[in-house]
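Today's session is about reading a structure prediction critically. Students often jump straight to the picture, but the first step is always the sequence itself: look for stretches that repeat, for charged clusters, for runs of hydrophobic residues. Only then move on to the predicted structure, which in these notes is written as discrete structure tokens rather than atom positions. Here is the chain we will use throughout the hour.
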Amino acid sequence: MNAVFGTSTKQPTWQTIALFVLGLWLSSSFILDFVIMPTLGTAGMLNDASFASAGYSIFWMFNRIELLCAALVLTSLLAIRGTSNLYHHVRRWSILLSGLLLAIAIINTYIMTPQMSALAMQLNLFEPATGMASGMVEMHEGYWFLEAIKLIVGATVLAWCYHDSREIA
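Below is the predicted structure for this chain, in token form.
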């Protein structure tokens, strides 16, 4: 166990993993939320009846990657918790905030995405699509609320990790 979580040789490795994964996760989430989805919306694909299944497949894959990223961030912060230069209060908050990031990824993966896809799915082929289903607006508000929390908390943890890595160097 000491070989994996050693104090002198592994700290920059775990620090690098946390920085890389947080940067990759936040940037890909930003691109998906503010580039890809608005582009699909302006192209009219969000109003298509078959978009629910396509959107579910996009978010199914992205949410699993998001779970992996959240788990890697939490693991790396737990691995460097005893050797970090950050003072005790920030270390504790960074671990708690990374746990919050994991909780948000779990909520998005297992609650929000299946529920939104189920609401958007058109089950009767003989009825014309009538637009957005009732309850979808509340689900979108919840999704954007979680995304805003994720981006703010992720940027905070990224800034703390970057500051800590600058202190080591």
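Discussion point for the tutorial: Residues 45 and 51 are 7 Å apart (CA to CA).
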